[in-house]
Model the fold of this input.
Amino acid sequence: MKGIFRHMAEYINRQWRLAARPVGNFKDSDFTWHEEPVPDLADGQVLVRNIYLSLDPTNRIWAAQDSYLPAVPLGDVMRGVAVGVVEASRHAGFPVGTFVQGLLGWQLYYVGNGQGLTPIAKIPGHSLLLYHGVLGAIGLTAYFGLLDIGRPREGETLVVSAAAGAVGSMVGQIGNIKGCHVVGIAGGPEKCRWIVEDLGFDAAIDYKHEDVAAALTRYCPKGIDVYFDNVGGAILDAALARMNNFGRVVACGAISQYTSEKPPAGPANFLLVISKRLRIEGFIVLDYLPRAQEAIPQLLEWIAQGRLKYRLDVVDGLEQAPRAVQKLFDGSNIGKLVVKVSDEP
Amino acid sequence: MKGIFRHMAEYINRQWRLAARPVGNFKDSDFTWHEEPVPDLADGQVLVRNIYLSLDPTNRIWAAQDSYLPAVPLGDVMRGVAVGVVEASRHAGFPVGTFVQGLLGWQLYYVGNGQGLTPIAKIPGHSLLLYHGVLGAIGLTAYFGLLDIGRPREGETLVVSAAAGAVGSMVGQIGNIKGCHVVGIAGGPEKCRWIVEDLGFDAAIDYKHEDVAAALTRYCPKGIDVYFDNVGGAILDAALARMNNFGRVVACGAISQYTSEKPPAGPANFLLVISKRLRIEGFIVLDYLPRAQEAIPQLLEWIAQGRLKYRLDVVDGLEQAPRAVQKLFDGSNIGKLVVKVSDEP
Done:
């Protein structure tokens, strides 16, 4: 029997806790596994069973240092965005059976006051994975980052890095829908083939095997108007060198820098910001969550029309999370990386 | 006798031509002096006698490399903004006696088709120096850079570097007028005293004798909302570290980098652009010249009200230009640097 009367000790939680500040890529030993019964709910608390846990480049930031959120304290459950279902509740705002999304953590059961959790609707015909594939942080990042910050106009040239990544692949497709000439930068021939042949990018640059600056000149004959940056570092510099006057750089991520053991170097071509009158603007998708409903109907429509495709990389079992997250930083994953924690109802 | 019938050979031109690409600060030997008669005017040409020549940090960029304008070719007259008066004309758009402003060059007489020259009005009660002091590039840079790019709101904290410079001193005063808490960064006690006591800045930081990062913490207790950057380099990094979320960086200049013999390093704190959701935007005042009339009445009113003060550093004689321009890069000038080329009518 489920609900507010069920005895919590029946729930055995399983958690990954942060054991060490990562140096370079994550290592297995940065996390420790804990199992313990869930405590009884206090008044106002809710228990959520996590179903799908999202693994994202920003996890590395959260584990390493204070940034736009405080660093995860050592010994605490690792922070992570997940979707889950309320299984027990002493909070009138989250009745049992409600699907929710939020910072539920790398664990089977979340217990807390529900702050920051957002109720989500199960979309008929879709798995809850949709909320990691396109309706969650990934889709909203691509949608608002490109349209609100990058503001591409029809006929302009859009370049996106980490173009086979979860965000990048969606940015390029939205750019296509908006009538841009879209060039993606990705690592390796398989990723490059995928974004051109399956997703409809106009061109792809394999940064592992090509000179990016030369390729940008070749594939962006009219220069770059919008550069959606997921990687920072040398590729950002190459893009800056090819930007048109009044170009816009969407500073979304800098994955090339997150695992660096040296202090990151700033972009050497920074002076071009002045001479080319560039706008470089950073953003965090959390700021846009209150506007999610502006984007979701449009994203669903594009999916239904087959104009927005995405690939999921679903790893089965919470136990796999520390190993899986490392794939984000060694370039080995394609598509949105998700850990399946438990079954959808 | 003046006018289109006067024989041009009566006009002996005097010019500084660019002889070498500068390395580090300008040197006297980067320029060579030429005297020669002015050629007869062709149909559609105009002859302008230069009166006041503006010396600006961007001169170093023009002399060194292609940027937002092509580099000045070696052997050509050095490029420079000046105000002058039409003394002979075969161009109906520029009758004799018209005052004009534009890229008239480091010379006594400009001869050309008038492209890019703007007629200017002599403002009653003011010297034509007004067009270098506040109504020309300097005032428009401060006005549009701060208000259009920086968009400060009342009560916000504005920091400006090179604050005793021609642009910086005006930016701070406009920030004051708009109700900002204004902190200037300048080199040396005399400049710092001037911007606080005479111009009304709330605080000044002497970067030559103070730790800028510590001083920004002290003088900007609520963080920085708008940073108007004229210098780049280490001071830009210190400002980035102190920016508030959603802060704006007006990328106006990077004088610390112009004379560097090493390739400039990008801002090491660049990753903060993402986590703090900063907007860094470059601009060039030339883009705003068509909107000058939006600003000029307001600037004149503030001057008349005593709310906008400026200091001129007028050097007498075109011969002095190569030596004078070096003062911009060794920190020794205060106020707008102008060379008086000939007398006002």
